[in-house]
Design goal:
Layout lengths: L3 H5 L46 E2 L3 H14 L2 E9 L2 E12 L2 E8 L6 E5 L2 E6 L4 E6 L14 H7 E11 L2 E10 L6 E7 L5 E7 L5 E12 L19 E4 L3 E2 L7 E3 L7 E9 L5 E8 L4 E8 L10 E5 L2 E8 L2 E7 L3 H9 L1 E3 L5
Parallel strand pairs: 7-13
Antiparallel strand pairs: 1-8, 2-3, 2-12, 3-4, 4-5, 5-6, 6-7, 8-9, 9-10, 10-11, 11-12, 14-16, 15-22, 16-17, 17-18, 18-21, 19-20, 20-21
Helix pairs in contact: 2-3
């Protein structure tokens, strides 16, 4: 769940089947389908020093918490590379944590020029070619090298966490940790966390055969120091004449929606729900489910009479699976970096509430 284009340009818009394709996944309006499900993971601890392969972690809470803290509170500058499906994308990240909070800048180094500047939950995404600035708040969602989508106890319930060995990434010693799924409803993960600071240096997504299907890894990183404020400013000198989209959202009460989630599926529990009304008139509710590590987004919107016809179906892009179908007078989209059977089960669990007679 790390597609850099998805990570950089979230918009929480449900895709139609025609949006799936090589070009569509780099469009800013396609980017946050996963509600942030896609960038993640874990950490190491000096306790691994004496552990052998398959050694149970001394404390999942300690391991996972340490990487969360490192991503939020360490200062770092580095270049990371995302590999998936024979494709590669590279980005440069600068992160500063001080008394004013967190400030972070991520710049794509290949493909179309794109960059994101974040201060705490306020995110500004700059797309110079389209002269577009997207502004939105994204509470609780972090890009690589950030981590958890839900509480640590959810991770323990759904994954077996093991310290296995040591490695070197970007010239630094790191602890290798595996998260092995307890069932077939989620992928596994292999990660490498900096031994000294706990910062995540590399994360791999493992499919059902434990083959690596996606990875994000620092190629160089400097941890510590104090990045300058100037280095965190957008490189665009001015946005005068640009289109500026404020993608505001408000909390949604799913219990008041005409649709419902009949049951939690495979340890995926609701963690947040938001409501957005777009300038185009689209009215979308997004419910995010998580098992602690992975997340799945459910998007529901009324079918507008003037909307173009949509096709029901399934699609896959690397480890991301997607399903879209009609739900009465609504359009349902479920997407996440989980096996297809999980997406199908979650989609099947969404139904309409009975109308009082």
């Amino acid at each position: 769940m790390f597609r850099i284009d998805i990570l950089l340009f979230p918009s929480s818009i449900a895709l139609t089947r025609r949006d799936i394709g090589a070009g569509a996944w780099t469009r800013p309006e396609c980017a946050s389908l996963i509600g942030g499900v896609l960038c993640v993971l874990l950490i190491g601890s000096s306790a691994a020093q004496s552990g052998g392969a398959g050694t149970p972690s001394p404390s999942s809470e300690l391991l996972l918490g340490r990487i969360q803290q490192a991503a939020a509170h360490q200062n770092y500058i580095g270049t990371f590379v995302h590999h998936e499906g024979g494709q590669m994308q590279t980005a440069r990240i600068t992160h500063l944590a001080d008394d004013s909070g967190e400030t972070e800048k991520v710049v794509m180094l290949d493909g179309h020029p794109r960059e994101v500047v974040r201060h705490d939950d306020l995110v500004e995404a700059y797309l110079p070619e389209g002269r577009l600035l997207v502004v939105e708040k994204r509470a609780g969602r972090r890009l690589f090298p950030g981590l958890l989508k839900g509480p640590v106890d959810a991770v323990d319930a759904n994954y077996r966490v093991e310290l296995t060995s040591q490695a070197r990434i970007a010239g630094r010693t790191c602890d290798v940790i595996q998260l092995l799924p307890r069932d077939n409803l989620r992928y596994g993960y292999r990660l490498c966390a900096d031994r000294q600071t706990g910062l995540l240096l590399k994360i791999e997504t493992l499919d059902e055969q434990r083959d690596s299907v996606e990875q994000v890894s620092f190629t160089d990183v400097e941890i510590g120091g104090h990045p300058t404020r100037a280095s965190l400013r957008p490189s665009v000198p001015s946005v005068e004449g640009w289109n500026i989209e404020h993608r505001d959202s408000e909390p949604a009460d799913v219990s008041q929606q005409p649709w419902k989630l009949d049951a939690d599926v495979g340890g995926f529990h609701p963690v947040t729900a938001v409501h957005r009304v777009f300038a185009s008139g689209r009215d979308v509710v997004q419910l995010v489910l998580s098992d602690g590590m992975a997340s799945v987004s459910i998007f529901v919107e009324p079918i507008r009479p003037d909307a173009a016809p949509r096709s029901e179906g399934e699609a896959r892009k690397g480890p991301i699976n997607f399903i879209s179908r009609a739900l009465g007078q609504f359009w349902l989209t479920v997407v996440g970096e989980v096996p297809v059977q999980t997406i199908r089960q979650i989609a099947a669990s969404v139904g309409l509430r009975e109308t009082p007679k």
